[in-house]
Amino acid sequence: MKRDFLRDIATGIKWIHKNNIVHRDIHDGNILIGNLESNGPDSNILIADLGFSRPAKDNLESSESNIYGIMPYIAPEVLNKKQYSFSSDIYSLGMIMWELTSGYRPFYERKYDSLLALDIFNKLRPIITEDTPHCWAILMQKCWQSDPLERPTIDEIYDEVNSRYWNENESFIKEAENKRQKLLNTGKLAVKYMHPHSKTHSQLLNPTIDSMLLQGSKSFTLQPIDSFQSISSDSFNIIPEHFKNADSLNSTINMPPSKKHTIEFLLDENYYDSQPYNLSLNDAIYQITNLSNLNLNHDKLCYEAGKALSEALCTNSNLKCLDLSSKTLCNGAGQEIARALSSNNTLTNLNLENNYLGDDAVMALSKALYKNTSLICLNLRNNRFDKKALAALCKNTALTNLDLNENSLGESGIKSLAENNLGESVEKALAEALCKNITLTNLDLSWNNLGESGVKALAEALYKNTTLTNLSVYNTRITELGGKALAEALHKNTTLTNLNLGLNFL
């Protein structure tokens, strides 16, 4: 049924975007479900309340600064007072997807205030439930990317949820259901605390956002620190009759004033089709050989491009900082870059964030770090590793800064990226490696779901490790027992000066 819900919602948003409309207020209260008991295609899903909607071109040109909505569904760029776009609707859809799997509104345990807005702006996202299917979680994470350019279009989402894999492959549904039943039986799905939200429908958010931006400006840096809820008919406006006939969308609509602005006309041109930006590395190698800093952020590198970059790294004697974040590097390109690291002795900073590197690329990178003696800062946030790769990373003798934020290290090899959790056996492998590592000073494990035995193993490592000075375990679901283990370790650890335990269950 959840697949049917998502497919219907995607169909509705596709219709809206096809007609050049940005909805701007997609949340659970504006998703109407009919014939729920039919458990099939007759469960009609309607997207309501187009009162805040705008023609896409008008949306960019508008000087209106008022922001309405419910906090968790508002895209980060909108919180930063950037214009609404098709991509901001996609972000809201990502939160709807999470709500479909969890059964709760995003951040149900928190007050919808400026602190939450600041955390969302700093990449805070709901923790993905263990019973979420892999393909669902991957698509959901793409939808709530912080960078609007990294989010898929509604056409891409529509094609995926209507693909043969999603609709004919029942194995991942059965697996997810089995996990859900186990979680229900163990009580892990039970909610211990739900904040008594009073604002369950769209509100003016400008005062809250202004407060958030003020707090952000005072901070040294903005750092990352199975059904809908009941909805009432008074929290939304049913879609106007004017919008039910697509032919009328390109004509002027005369409507009486209301509490919200209405659409007057829509333009026909496909104004917002994005064009990919391609960089030919083969033609630019001669320029690369004299650079000290190279930023290829947001370029999608194929195997040939990765090979060309690899050759440049082997011959370049000046390059120190290489930013390949958000590249969606293919496995072959990742392997080529890893091989280059084996012979490169100048690169000190490498950013591979948000690449979803495959098994072969990650293992090649780990092996390269055995030979590389210059790299000191490595950002591997939001990738995927197995425990062997993790242990190899910690055995490097030069690395001082390692960012493993938002990874999903499985207990018996690589787990789904979408699961977003460190397996306990992997955490033990990390702890063992930390006992032997003599150079690592900064370690970020934020946003990983650490098991109880894994936390205890990490605490034991802190007894022996004499170099680590900064450790972040922000939002890692550490319980009271894990907190006690860490507290005991701190009595004997003489080097750790900064410990981030934010958003845990101590």
From TrEMBL:
Keyword ATP-binding: no
Matches recorded under SUPFAM superfamilies: Protein kinase-like (PK-like), RNI-like
InterPro entries, per database record: Kinase-like_dom_sf, Leu-rich_rpt, LRR_dom_sf, Prot_kinase_dom, Ser-Thr/Tyr_kinase_cat_dom, TKL_Ser/Thr_kinase
One Pfam family from the record: LRR_6
Example of a GO MF term: protein kinase activity
Keyword Repeat: yes
Domain Protein kinase, residue spans: 1-173
Keywords per UniProt: Leucine-rich repeat, Repeat
Identification of the protein by name: 6608_t:CDS:1
Source organism of this protein record: Cetraspora pellucida
